[in-house]
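INTERNAL AUDIT FORM
Audit reference: QA-55
Scope: verify that the stored structure record matches its stored sequence.
Auditor: D.O.
Record contents follow.
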Amino acid sequence: MQQVKRVLVVDDEEGMRMTLAANLELEGYEVVEARDGVHALELAEQQAFTLVLSDVRMPGLNGVETFRELKRIQPELTVVLMTAFALEQLIEEAITEGVYTVIYKPFSMDHLARVVARAVDAPAVLVVDDIPKVADSIVAVLRAAGLSAHAVHDGRTAVQHVLERRVDVCVLDLVMPDQDGVATCAQMRGLKQRVTVIAMTGHSVPEMVGAIMSQGGYTCLRKPFDARELIHTIARARGDAAPG
C-alpha cells in the first residue's frame, strides 16, 4: 500500500492557505495547515511531514526562521518557500542553508504541483566528474549547505545511479573519457525519471554546450565556479520545474 505523503502548508493569509491546501489535496496529498511559524513548529513536534510549503513574510517567525527550526525538529524535512517580495538577504540565507527551492508569487497551481511532486520524493543532486577530487569536493560543498548529494566519476555509472536512486538534478561535466556529458545527458533524457541537467566545463567546447542545451540542459557553468553560484543554480532549477 502506497504511503500517503503529508504536506504542511504555512501561511498567515487564510485565503491563500486554504487555496493551496485544497489544490494539494486534489493532487492526492494529505495536507495540514498552519497559520504561522509558531503553529508550524507545534505541529512538527506532533507529527512527521514529507514536505513543508511555507510563506516567507509572516508575523512573528518569518519563513526562513521557521525553516531553521523545522529542520532542527525534523532534520530530513524538505522545505519549499514562497514569497511575493524581493527579500534578497533572507532568500540568500535560506538557499545557502539547504531550502529545496523558493517559488515566487503569483504562481500557477500547475507550477506548484510540479515543484511539490519533485520535492516530496526527497531527491538528491548527482555530481558527475571524471576527476574524483573535483566531484567529491563539489559534493562536500553541497552537503555542507544542507543538500543531499552524491558523486560518481563516469557517465555510465551516472545513468545507472539515476535508474537506481532518486535524483532530480545532475551536475554533469561535459568533457570526460569514454562517455562524455552530451551522451550521458541523452541517456538520462531517455529514462522515465525527470532529471534536470546542469552542465559544467573547464574547456572551450561551444558545440558540446549547444548540444546539451538542445537536449534540455538547464544551463552550463564555467569551471572554476563559485560554490554559491552552483547552490543558487540548483535552487532555481528546482523552482522552475519545467514540465517534461
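Auditor finding: record pair retrieved intact. DSSP finds ten helices and ten strands in the chain.
Action required: none
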